[in-house]
Input
Amino acid sequence: MATATIRDVARTAAVSVASASRALNGHPSVTPATRARVLEAADALNYVPHLGARSLSTRRSNTIGVVLPDLFGEFFSEIIRGIDYAAHRRGLQLLLSNMHGSAQETAAALRAMRGRVDGLLVMSPQLDADFLAHNLPKGLPAVVLNGRIEGARHASIAIDNQAGAHAAVAHLVAQGCKRIAHLSGPQGNADADERARGFREAVASMLGDHDPVVLAGDFSEEAGIAAGTELAGRDVDGVFSANDIMAIGCMAALSEAGRTIPGDIAMVGFDDVPIARYVTPALSTMRVHIAQLGESALERLVATIEADQPPEATAEFLMPELVVRASSARTGIITSTKGPHDRTQGRVV
Output
């Protein structure tokens, strides 16, 4: 059977070749109805753009697409570092794209990968199964990071955020904290919502507090500073932050207001970004092996690409690890296990 061309797609969809091209590349000038008709025609014809079919013998581009909510910040740089390490080891190239927080731009980014990559890694803490099913190119191997996609056709790797929040609260309680506040991430973000849910459940069960202090944040340092300024005048003795960057900003504002850490307020973050171990006091956190998460996702995607039969779309959950540093260690119990990437790695003993 002859390989379908874009002219075949345009003819089947009853549009011009230019309109078909714009629709396949997610151009905003194309109406939703036209885009849907073109995509349906492309799927029916098994159309693959020329760029993705340049190696007719292998049908491989040796390129992996990566679509992330952002390309800036320590968390995303660590994710990319892990993906790049695994890709380089296998001689693969990466094609990176940024969602920019817009559903329309996310759809365009996913569709732009059509025919250009052998597989796709997508981080989607704000996307659901329906959105991904509609916009991910059909037949393209994909692994979703930090997405809750029950019933989806693609494998996923996610952090057990609720369990991590429980562990963070349990540690603060063990340090003698009785009035624990939470600095949450952006509403609608799956990671942030699950960490907030885990926090509420933990303080209710461990402290009997059913109406804890929860301050809205957005994962930024500025949100942490604003929260620290407000918490300086509140009756709290512990803070669980939904990420490290907000925790660091919060600690700076609390210190500026004359509150001591951990004496007055003990602090625990989430992620264990590299800077967490170097601030003063060093930040206790729920460690996510971020680079390893990216590396594992790439390896899993490659296994899917190379499999004779598509493997079952299973969900894998990673449990964060409590790392105790000076920001919460009121008991003074820190065990250092020095390594090449962490000079102050610690655990409660």
Notes: The mean pLDDT is 84.
